[in-house]
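Ticket #4471: structure output looks truncated?

Reporter: J.K.
Steps to reproduce: submitted the chain below (84 residues) through the standard prediction queue, then opened the result file.
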Amino acid sequence: MESLPDKLIHTGEDLKERLERARQIKEIQELEECNFKPEINIISQKIDNEKARMGMNGEWDRNIRLYEEAKIRTEIHKSQSRIL
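Returned output as attached by the reporter:
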C-alpha cells in the first residue's frame, strides 16, 4: 500500500501530465483555427524564379526580397491610383 506522500506525488505527476496534454491539444486547435495562410502571388513567384535562376538563393533572403518587392509594387499601385 502506498503512503500518503507517495500518493500525493503520483497524483501531482498525473495532474502535470494531464495539464501538458491539455496545453498541447489547445495549441493544435489554435493552429487549426488559424485563418492566416500566406500565399505568394504569381508576380512574386515569377520574380523569385527568375532571381533563383540568376543564382540569388537563400530562404531568408527570398522572404525579405519578396516582402520588399511587394512593398514596392504596393507603392507603385498607390501612386498610379492617385494619378488617375
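Triage note (M.O.): checked the attachment and the full C-alpha cell line is present. The two ends are 86 Å apart (CA to CA).
Status: closed, working as intended.
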